[in-house]
């Protein structure tokens, strides 16, 4: 399949991320038209060669497709309501955050307007846009993604997830949860040893320098992922009963040291629930069953 590369792109919304998108396109030699509710935010980009549109209509008409980077879906509706000339026949790539149902509703609304629509998510901070390791997620009509793939690739690796427009934001929220869970695990652990006067920097040397790369081996986790789909959790190397013992110790130690016990207590309670469901002799991945339902 041959992908088209656009020589012009419009960017609507010039917060830190929107500005980074526009600047990246400019750096790749692409003509960029920008619009923002506060026009002054475009000054730096205009100085670098961007064209400032007076209206959303003007911005969307200036390029084969428009990337919108606005706070949320309700704000997006308000912004697009200002497109007095109509949206029919235009293409919009929406990069904001919210929920899958909001993305699907936006796609339905766009279809009613005759607007071609891709939903997406940005998986890196503004400083990494356009650089190595920059990943963007997209969902919606595959032919529309294919049509603009080459241009979207200027921002980072474009990952197409499927026709369901809610998939990009679903992946985004799931991956962010994964990130926060890891960070919170480290922060809680640092608080535990910190209660005994151990500096966080000293703890990090062992926790992040050895423990995380070896014990929390991403390749090892990936190798176990098929068991989640199969619902098979063989416990030859460790059972939920054994893990519950460790989780109980974490909760008790947290209480003894005077640090917050909410998270370790929750994990203990979930483990107890899974064991009650009959997974006591299965491995820790059977905790998946507790997360699959309320």
UniProtKB/TrEMBL annotation:
Residue span, NADPH-dependent reductive aminase-like C-terminal domain: 164-292
- Keyword Oxidoreductase (UniProt): yes
- Give the UniProt keywords, A-Z: Oxidoreductase
Q: Which residues form a coiled coil?
A: none
Q: What is this protein called?
A: NAD(P)-binding domain-containing protein
Per the UniProt record, the source organism is Nonomuraea longicatena
Keyword Cell division carried by entry: no
Organism classification, top ranks? Bacteria, Bacillati, Actinomycetota, Actinomycetes, Streptosporangiales
Q: Which residues form the signal peptide?
A: none
6-phosphogluconate dehydrogenase NADP-binding domain location is 9-156
Q: At the top level of its lineage, which domain of life is listed?
A: Bacteria
What family is reported? Belongs to the HIBADH-related family.
